[in-house]
Design a protein that fits this description.
Blueprint lengths: L33 H27 L5 H36 L2 H28 L6 H17 L11 H4 L5 H11 L5 H23 L5 E3 L1 H7 L3 H9 L3 E3 H43 L4 H9 L8 E13 L1 H6 L3 H21 L3 E6 L2 E6 L8 H25 L6 E17 L4 E6 L1 H16 L3 E4 H9 L4 H4 L4 E6 L8 E5 L1
Parallel strand pairs: 1-2, 6-8
Antiparallel strand pairs: 3-5, 3-6, 4-5, 6-7, 8-10, 9-10
């Protein structure tokens, strides 16, 4: 860190013995070539910071998914609204301070500046709301903000104390207001906007200080030149406190501080955007899982996202539910009405499945396939499957009561249910996968559903499923009222008859 005492910038020369008189730093404009050389040195010092900012901008430009992009765009627009609210609140406080501390004849100019800053806050917000995203529309206004702020802070107004100069203005901690301005821009939730505004603020502040340094009566000082000149500590202090002194070392520190603040704010916003992307991605995955699994099982899958990619064998109950007479219903309905009708039918059955922690495998036209025991087997899988089947039948009865009240035909379904060992996991190729179960249990459950029509039954359950439910401590007839044993039946694809129950 450079010393706080910051003497003049002058070409190195041998120092005479004794104190260095103040007359060695003559008042007036700086020598030609001094400020351009200083600008070059400042540019070299800021080169690493600029490269870091450009790297951050490149990383931010990486494309995001459409869902995450829309979420980030909404956050940016909302952020500009918060930034506008914060700006108006801060300006209101400043207006109250001016009104209570300054004479009324000196308040007009301050109120005009406050009004100008308030007006400049509205265009970016209005443009972003119309476009649905921040984009580059806000950048010119924020850069104009930075320039106006630097001008107001550096150059004195017409009511300033007599003898007060821009050089003296640089002694004030006015740069803190620039820092506050940069912090407010971070509310826009756009790293690119923070970077652009930060660079604009640094450029405007630097240009203002250098403009003051080129004014008549300015004496440019730096700590390095003072040490090289051999000035005494007392002379350094005198030079630094001279009315026309302009410390470029102070400018270096201010620019570095503003640059670091800009970088930290941009990194902070970039980090928050990454968290938004992850949050949106996690929510998208959760919504995708919610189409198949109950909320209780989604939590377990989030702990082990790769569980579905590892096919596993285990006991499970498989349920098929199909609408009876669907072809006849189709003939009497318009396509749009048919889609709505099927959507309501599927929603009612899926709701019953999720209420009993079932996994919705797929919709097969007017049918639904559900399994219990995936992706993790539980002792009561068969009992929950039976309870789900009973809930589906009751749900269809309630729906039919509502349809009858509207003069619509009733809906009939057939449900088949079997329990046994299955292979569960993601099936498919790299382009499309589907979580499903495979095995003889699936085939038998489908055949039992078709058997409902031959037996004039609404539900056909294998004896294996009933016994598995009893083994879990459940009473099948309590889960499905009217469930009674039926003679064994031969089903297609099975050499041995299947013992069944019906309801």
């Amino acid at each position: 860190m450079t010393p706080v005492e910051i003497p003049r910038l002058a070409p190195p020369e041998p120092a005479p013995p004794g104190p260095v008189p103040l007359a060695r730093v003559p008042p007036g404009p700086v020598e030609p070539g001094t400020i351009p050389a200083t600008r070059g040195a400042l540019a070299r010092r800021l080169a690493p910071l600029g490269e870091a900012l450009r790297g951050l901008a490149r990383s931010e430009a990486a494309p995001a998914g459409p869902v995450a992009a829309r979420a980030l765009a909404r956050e940016e627009v909302a952020g500009l609204g918060y930034m506008l609210a914060a700006r108006l609140a801060a300006l209101g406080v400043m207006a109250a301070w001016v009104l209570t501390t300054l004479p009324i004849e000196r308040s007009g100019l301050y109120f005009a500046v406050i009004a100008a800053f308030a007006a400049l806050g509205f265009p970016p917000w209005l443009l972003a709301r119309r476009a649905g995203a921040v984009g580059v529309a806000a950048a010119p206004f924020l850069m104009l903000d930075a320039g106006l702020l630097a001008y107001v802070l550096i150059f004195p107004d017409s009511y300033a104390t007599e003898g007060w100069t821009p050089q003296l203005n640089l002694r004030l901690p006015s740069v803190l207001y620039v820092a506050v301005f940069l912090v407010s821009v971070s509310l826009a939730h756009s790293p690119r906007l923070v970077l652009l505004t930060g660079l604009a603020a640094i450029g405007a502040w630097t240009a203002g200080v250098l403009r003051v340094a080129e004014m008549p009566g300015s004496v440019v000082t730096t700590s390095v030149s003072a040490l090289q000149s051999g000035a005494s500590p007392a002379q350094m202090v005198a030079d630094f406190l001279a009315p026309g002194a302009v410390s470029l070392t102070a400018l270096y520190n201010q620019v570095m501080a503003l640059g670091l603040l800009t970088l930290i704010l941009a990194l902070s916003v970039w980090r928050s955007r990454r968290l938004v992307r992850r949050s949106v991605g996690a929510e998208t995955q959760r919504l995708a899982l919610a189409r198949y699994f109950s909320p209780e099982l989604i939590g377990e899958l989030e702990k082990d996202p790769g569980a579905l990619d590892r096919p596993a064998r285990g006991p499970a109950a498989v349920l098929f539910a199909d609408m009876v007479g669907f072809t006849t219903i189709c003939e009497r309905m318009a396509p749009e009405a048919l889609v709505a009708f099927l959507g309501e039918f599927h929603a009612r059955l899926a709701r019953a499945a999720f209420e009993h922690d079932g996994t919705v495998d797929k919709y097969l036209g007017d049918a639904i396939m559900v399994h219990f025991g995936t992706p993790r087997a539980r002792p009561d899988d068969a009992a929950r499957a039976l309870a789900c089947a009973g809930a589906m039948l009751r749900e269809i009865d309630r729906w039919n009561a509502a349809r009858a009240a509207r003069g619509e035909a009733p809906v009939e379904i057939g449900v088949g249910l079997h329990h046994g060992e299955v292979l569960a996991g993601n099936i498919g190729d790299a382009r499309r996968v589907e979580y499903t179960v495979l095995g003889d249990v699936v085939n038998v459950a489908s055949r039992l559903e078709r058997l409902c029509r031959d037996l004039d039954a609404r539900l056909v359950v294998s004896d294996a499923c009933v016994e598995a439910a009893r083994a879990a401590g459940a009473e099948p007839q309590a889960l499905v009222p009217g469930l009674v044993p039926e003679a064994s039946r031969q089903v297609r694809g099975r050499s041995e008859p299947v013992a069944i129950w019906r309801a």
